[in-house]
Amino acid sequence: MNEDRITVYRRSALALSTVVITSALWMGVAAPALADPYDDGGSSESGDSGSSDQPADEPGGEAPGADEPGPGADEPGPEAPAEPPADEAPGGGGADEAPGGGADEPGAPEAPGGPADEGGPGDPDSNVTDPGVDADSPEPNVAEASQEAFDEAHSAEAVDVESTEASESEVTEVTETLESFESSTTTTSSSTWSSGVSQWNSSWTGYDNWYRPVFTNPYSTPLQMYYWYDDATRLFEVPPMGRAVLTAPDAGVYNFTAVNKDPSGKPVTVSTGSFTGGGYKPAPGQPPPAKPAPISTFKNVLVQLKYNDKLSKPFRVNTVADLGDDPSVGGHRVLLDNETPVWGTWTKTAGGERLFEVTSTNQLPGLTQPSQGPVAGYQVQLTSSEQTTAAPAKKAWVKPVIIVGAIAAVLVIGGIAFFLAGRRKKTTP
């Protein structure tokens, strides 16, 4: 009778331990699936500036007029208010910060983005570098000119220019011409993708005493500039080997297309850039313009194209300036290296590093709408659309659950063995 009971206990213990061990192993196998909440593609996670060795005043640097007049700055007349303080430079946050403000163009955010925005990248000081990410660091294709040409153009006296509204027929004609240039100069292969549109040279833009942008043209032909402002495509020209001061009193960050043509009118260089509006020279009795608001700028950021039919290998850019949520296009609008506009979503890699997933860009701002095209100024490496290079980290609770299950199994088996050993002692004659 005692032997029968012992046999029953042994069978029960074996069955129970099998169940516990199987459960623990099942949880271990299921861990990767439980740790990948972004498999559907959605996410709610939030040096060299070209050919110039002496860049123009940047929006985030010292204000023109601190020690000497800024590029293109007219001295205020006797009736004009005093100059803005020297520490109130446009952007106000260091040379690495992009111009600040909302944008008055299609899909423009109402206010600059920041760490507190929903879906934002978080605290800029809390970033980590994920050693597990194999990322490229491509040098942007920036508009260039010889140092001598830039020096000559930059030393010219800046002239005030007035933009004009481009007619519908003019917009259609120039858009078709530039799209033809873009398609003929864009290179695409099974592994790389780059645009014939370059990135505007940041050293060719400065700001005067009144926060107005000053553009330098180092070319021997007029530089045509297209941008969206006041619900219309507007155009102005920077004279050959000269400089031009533009007044855009509505605060915001504006993206533009700059076109350099040869004497026959054929586009030679097309580039995409950005400038800050909100500056104006005050009339007598008028208060001076307010300093443009700074925006959140992040350094050494991972970027990845995530289009419907294309996925790129992550690549690093020097800076990403977040202009805030843009519901008309989708996601956040940001500037890559303070110039190239793209739209997308902030997320994180498996190692916790912030990453910006690009869902659309605009190679001809002011003329065309954002689309899933190549990013002006960058050659990207394309990968398989099934490959996930920015998968989130595993959930913290998965590993502890596996450990707890294994410990429980050991305790159960040990308890049963102890119980059976005690029963044996009692039944032994």
TrEMBL record:
Acidic residues bias: start-end ranges: 159-173
Low complexity: bias regions: 40-53, 64-75, 105-115, 174-198
UniProt-annotated stretches for the region Disordered: 35-198
Compositionally skewed regions (Gly residues) per UniProt: 90-104
Alphabetical UniProt keywords: Membrane, Signal, Transmembrane, Transmembrane helix
Transmembrane portions of the chain: 397-421
Signal sequence residues: 1-35
UniProt entry tagged with the keyword Glycoprotein: no
This protein's name: Uncharacterized protein
Upper classification of the organism: Bacteria, Bacillati, Actinomycetota, Actinomycetes, Mycobacteriales
